[in-house]
Every structure is written in C-alpha cells, then in structure tokens.
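Hey team,

Filing this mostly as a record. A colleague (T.K.) asked me to run one chain through the structure pipeline before their review meeting, and I want the input and output archived in the tracker in case anyone asks later how it was produced. No errors, nothing strange. Just documentation.

Input sequence:
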Amino acid sequence: MTQSGYLLIGLTAVVGGLIAVLVFAVLRFGAAARQAGRRMRDGGAEHAFLTTALQGAVTTLKEQERASAARADASERLSAEIIASMTSGLLVVGLEEEVRILNPAGRRMLGLSDAALDGSFRALLSPIAPALVSAIDECLRAREPIVRRAVDVEFREGAGGATHLGVTVSPILDDAVSLQGAICLFSDLTAVVELEEQLRLKDSLARLGELTAGLAHEFRNGLATIHGYGRLLDLERLPEDYRPYVIAVRQETESLGQIVTNFLNFARPAELSLTTVSLERLAHRAADEIRPEVQQRGGAIDIRGRFADIQGDEVMLRQAISNLCRNALEACAQAGTRPVITLEGAVDVAQGTASLSVADNGPGIESSALDRIFRPFFTTKPDGTGLGLALVQKIIVTHNGRLTVDTSPQGTKMRAVLPTGSG
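Output structure:
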C-alpha cells in the first residue's frame, strides 16, 4: 500500500472520530435539553398548583368572612328585636353616666321620647324618678346587684307612663372583673299596686262595717226615742221661751238620724244585683237630675265620649254617678262659679274596662285634703256629711273598679273605671 493510501485511511479515521464526538455531543445536548424541559414542565405545574391552592384558600376565607359578617348582622338584629320586643323596661348605662340602651317599653313607662335620651341618665331621670337614680348609683358604687326594689315615678301633666315600678339593677363586669356600667330592668307595677290598694280598701270597709254597724244601729234607736219624745211635746202648751229649744232638738235628732242612716248604708256589706247596665243611660239620667239647677246658675252640662255596657248593680251605680254630679255642682256653687260640668265616657278594649268621668270647673281640691276626700265623715263643705264620696268609692270598689281624682285650680275630674268583663 502506498503512502497516500495510508494517509487517506488516517484522514478517514480522524474524520470518523470527529463525527463520533460531534454525534455524542449532540446526543448529550439533546438529552440535557429534554431533561431541562421536563424540569421546566414540572416546575410550572407545581407553580400552577400552588397558585390554585392559594386562590382557593383566599376564596374560602372570603366566604367565611361573609358568613361571619352575616351571622354578626343577624345576631345584632336579633338582639335589637329582642330588646325592642321586651315588655319590661331595659336601661343600660356606662361609667360616664351615658345612656347606652333604653328600649321602647322603658321609654313608655318613664314617659320619655327618643329625643330625650341625649345626656346622662342622672339628668334624664332625676326629675321623674330620683329613687331610680339612687338605685343605679348604689349599684355602681357597691358593685352589687339590687333586686326587686319598688320605685315611684312622678310625671308632668299629660306625660303618661307608669307610676310604680319594680326595679332590679346589676353591675356589668368584663372578663377581668372590671366595672363597665350597670343594667337596669324594671316593670310596671301600677296595676298591682292599685289592686293591692283596692283589696286593702275592701278589707277596711268590711272591718268598718263589722265594728260600727251594731253601734250605729243602737245609736239610731236612741235618737229615735229622743225624737219621739220631742214630737210628743205640744208646742202650743209650752211657754213661748221653750218652743225654740224643742224645735232645735227635733231638727238635730232628725239630722243625726239621717247621718246614722247614711252611715249604716255605707257600712252595710253591699249585695249586688247584677244586670246589664248602660253607662250612657246612667250618664244621661244623672245629667237630667241636676240640669235644672245648672241652668238656673247660668251653667251648662255636656255628655260626650264613648260608652259601654257593663255587668253591675244599676241602682248602686246610678247613686254613685248622681253623687259625683251633685258633688261637682256643689263645688262650683260653693266657689260662686258658673258651673260647666262634663260627663265623658271611654272604653279600653285591651284592658277590658270602661270609664265614666265627671269634670267640673270649680276651684279644685286642696293638696292637703286630697288624701282624705274618700274617708268617711271628712268634708270641706259647711253642711256636708262626709259620706258622699266615701259611698261612691265603696260602690265602685264593690264592682271591682277604681275611683281616681285629678284636680287643679281650674277644676276637678272624678273618674270611675269599671270592668266590662271582656278583658
């Protein structure tokens, strides 16, 4: 073989080796590229998975936040509805004496409007319920609850609301037992107090009748004997100087006999003969009885309002209404006032009561006498017996009603409230 042949063989081998190296490099580069592509694909999938997971978590958190807000709103609405629907009064005060909560029932019992809630509870309640302010102060000071305390409320004329409250005050403490304020629950005890007074009055009337009926009966018998002997004396046969004395004895015994009879009627236990009674008919009849005297004095008498039928003793109720009208006329006459008398009816379907009031334009009743006007034998009239209003009250109370009085220098209103049987 020639030298050129060997050279060709060597060049061929060299070229083959270069080709082999090149092929190997290309294969390694392709393998590396494929491996890098796989890594890139795996990293993108992981990133996509993490992104999806994060988005799901954010969505779940947002849904939970919306659900929590909805539950909070629902809880707040429920709390507001519960507070607004409570029949008892709810008052919450803070350490700065601010009024945090006063529900509608509480505002109604205290005779307050929404506009009056600004400011401290002390300035708000002191004019009408100082005892309630004292109870809250005591609770805040001692950090001890006050349970079932009776509180009286005084209202301006026409303010309305309860007059007797049952109050419970408790301190508000946080988790660290730090005082945050006080919560006060109160309920209207006006009807309960009136019922207790009515029961006490019935018991007093019963005891009065038992203790005095026998004594008054014997006293009337003695008066009858004195009056009888006085009638046996012939005035024509007596010296003229003695005749006025005998006449005075007769008049006084007649007057005392009438007083004793009235008192026996008052003290005797009442036996009701129940029938359906029209209060409107009773009002017109009582007005007709005094209308001639009212007109004679240049006055007027008016009947208005809404009336109802009740179950009662018509004779006794007629006597009670007539006494109220007569009392109104005499009050105006005593003051020299032209009488203007109004009989007004009203019906409270929810309470099952009907009322009949008699109002006059007389001078009113003095505050010193107001607590005694229904006591037997107490009177402010020169010739009164003091049994008229006492008998009226007994008749109304016997019918399970109540008699109230509202007086001022411009006049007096007597109001009889009676059950209709529908409450």
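Quick notes for T.K.: The longest strand covers residues 164-173. The longest helix spans residues 3-85.
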